[in-house]
Description:
The chain contains 16 helices and 13 strands. The chain is an alpha/beta fold. It has a seven-stranded mixed sheet. A two-stranded parallel ribbon has the order 1-12. Strands 5-6 form a two-stranded antiparallel sheet.
Amino acid sequence: LTSFDAVPLAPADPLFGLLAASKADTFDKKVDLVIGAYRDDNAKPWILSAVKKADAILANDPNLNHEYLPIAGLAAFTSAAARLILGKDSPAIQESRVTSVQTISGTGAVHLGALFLAKFYPRPRNQEVYLSSPTWANHHQIFSNVGLPLASYPYFSAETKGLDFEGLQAALESAANGSIILFHACAHNPTGVDPTRDQWVRIAEIIRKKHHFPFFDCAYQGFASGDLANDAWAVRYFIEQGFELCVAQSFAKNLGLYGQRVGCFHFVSPPAPSAADANKRIASQLAILQRSEISNPPAYGARIASIVLNDEKLFAEWEDNLREMSGRIKDTRRVLFDRLGELGTPGNWSHIVKQIGMFSFTGLTEKQVLRLREESHIYLTKNGRISMAGLNSRNVEYFATAVDKVVR
Length: 408
Ligand code: PLP
């Protein structure tokens, strides 16, 4: 008998379990559409050319060592990261209203934000954290792990395979005043459906009226549309509107630095004479939380990101890399859509080309997903989400034919 006999066996992470099953499958036409990581047209991981060059600069730097970074991370990286998401002319930056802390990629940034809110956000009526339905599965665990109560707002309409904007508005209207609302800044995971600019404007009106606190999770800036400013529009609009908010920023996808865990958490205070002072206090508390959790963030990936973000030429090359990745995905959406059309596959598939970013929410049912796996060695999550990056000119035809078969 041990002291831990009552510890229940947790289920395996469904995503990484599926990934293992796919890895173990040796069928030559296997298609892996599980994980949100970019693949080139040969279905291989891709190191961005801008990142390769930054790597070479680091490798030849005689002054490089392995000392600790400061608690808040590499300042050259965090300040460039803030300019990237907020815009270099952002009033929030000019007025010193931004606190930035380097984190363990986007996951760590969401977690640090959640931890900070759990400790310091005033919730006299025990307001909840509202997550979109559906959302990135990890959001549920991250916020409940820090003891914040969860609620959800409608997001995806199964009928239109687009945004359930009526449902979203109604939920934000009826949430208790001062609720925390989590938004995906762009390229919503898992649906690939984003609000339009007009819809964001309306959302901001409700947030203001209800005194809600907006928390933006930004994991795909530049990766979604190929344009960094376009993908940051919602965040920048909210800041223009004078909101107090926070942003969790990941460089996993847009720099292809997945395993290096490069991310940043930004807290933006609203415009007020006391904002710089508020920021100082918030920064001091974030530093204490960071110290107890990870002490110092990892250096290598942040140095790579810092070189790319701060060098004009490499930055321009990175923008080319972003256009290449997002362009290939957009082209593949079109090919898939056209192919399903040619096959006369039952149903309306226009959402394939309307959705944006890494994922498409296909509308395939769990039964159809299982059949795809069993009959065709095609792997996707049972909610019907496919990572578009897993499709390419060689396998899209095979995929379309297999989909056609299971929906008939
Ligand atoms: N948030 C969303 C919505 C995501 O899709 C992801 C990655 O899939 C992340 C955050 C964080 O990823 P990472 O911790 O690898 O940066």
